[in-house]
Write a structure and sequence with these properties.
Elements lengths: L1 E3 L5 H4 L1 H4 L1 H25 L2 H30 L11 H28 L8 H26 L3 H30 L4 H28 L9 H9 L4 E13 L2 E10 L5 H16 L3 E8 L12
Parallel strand pairs: 3-4
Antiparallel strand pairs: 1-4, 2-3
Helix pairs in contact: 3-4, 3-6, 4-5, 4-7, 4-8, 5-7, 5-8, 6-7, 7-8
Length: 305
């Protein structure tokens, strides 16, 4: 006997879609400022400004991938061959985002260390002006993406990049002011290293979260043993086995389990109670539960994996 619960997560699954307009606004704003920063970095010779432009490039690329994933998800969600839609695309985009940002951060740190031996002079006036523009752009993008970062790992990736870039712009402004006041040219590579050191741990955490979803590990906030014990406690359930819990995409936890029924248990009541427990106590909205009579051993065939 089996039963499936196919509940669509309108409020969570479409979280990133709700912020689509904000993503487009942030994309256009940061793309424009990225070009300005890149040109200014080469003209002024500032590594800190170049690192900020490189980071902003990954912001633009990351948001672009997020938008592409959202578009593909919306267009192909009804394909009968894709029984879970294309929700995983946003996770892949977040992982690619983390890899790209890690590469930029490592490059900046390595280049900055090389410059400590002989720091070149930089033009602080244009460097300061462009850094202030970058700060304003990042403040606007930060405000646009903040609410969506709580609901979608993809939007969270873009949000984290903008947060890092915002602090990077502050660092570039500080370096420009310090160099202008003291001629301490080491401030430029020092700020570049600081930006890289700030970016890397946050990027790796994002990558780790994406990988957990891709390998279908149970969500960190949820204990599988607790789910098992709660299902066993459902009236009419004698035993629970073949329990799996994983994350489809941000905020979409999925479970499947086999429930062995106690003698005299009513299937409908057991399934309703089990689904309610999963939904109310663990926020698992999509559960596929198979019931098995306790008097029929071997009904659940063993699987090798």
């Amino acid at each position: 006997m089996g039963a499936g619960h196919d509940h669509h997560h309108g409020s969570v699954a479409n979280a990133a879609q709700r912020h689509r307009g904000r993503l487009w606004a942030a994309f256009a704003l940061l793309a424009t400022l990225m070009m300005v920063e890149a040109v200014a970095a080469f003209r002024t010779g500032s590594l800190a400004l170049l690192s900020d432009a490189g980071h902003m490039f990954t912001d633009v690329l990351g948001i672009g991938m997020a938008l592409a994933a959202l578009t593909a998800t919306r267009r192909h969600d009804g394909d009968p061959q894709r029984t879970f839609g294309l929700y995983r695309l946003e996770v892949l985009a977040a992982l690619a985002n983390a890899v790209l940002l890690s590469g930029v951060a490592i490059y900046v740190v390595v280049e900055a260390v090389r410059r400590f031996g002989d720091p070149p002079e930089v033009q602080t006036g244009p460097m300061l002006a462009v850094a202030v523009l970058g700060l304003l752009a990042n403040l606007a993008a930060f405000a646009l993406l903040r609410s969506g970062a709580r609901e979608s790992i993809n939007v969270q990736g873009a949000y984290l990049e903008v947060l890092g870039d915002l602090l990077g712009s502050l660092g570039v402004i500080g370096a420009a002011l310090l160099i202008a006041a003291t001629d301490w040219w080491w401030a430029d590579p020092a700020v570049a290293v600081a930006i890289g050191a700030f970016i890397l741990p946050r990027t790796w955490r994002l990558g780790r979260a994406a990988l957990r979803i891709l390998v279908q590990a149970a969500p960190e906030h949820l204990q599988v043993t607790a789910v098992h014990d709660r299902l066993v406690a459902v009236p009419g359930v004698a035993e629970v086995h073949d329990l799996h819990v994983w994350t489809l995409t941000s905020g979409m936890e999925v479970a499947s389990a086999h429930l062995t029924l106690a003698p005299g248990a009513e299937v409908g009541a057991v399934l309703a109670a089990a689904r309610a427990a999963l939904r109310e106590e663990f926020r698992i909205e999509h559960a596929t539960l198979q019931t098995e009579p306790g008097a029929a051993p071997g009904i659940c065939g063993a699987v090798e994996w």
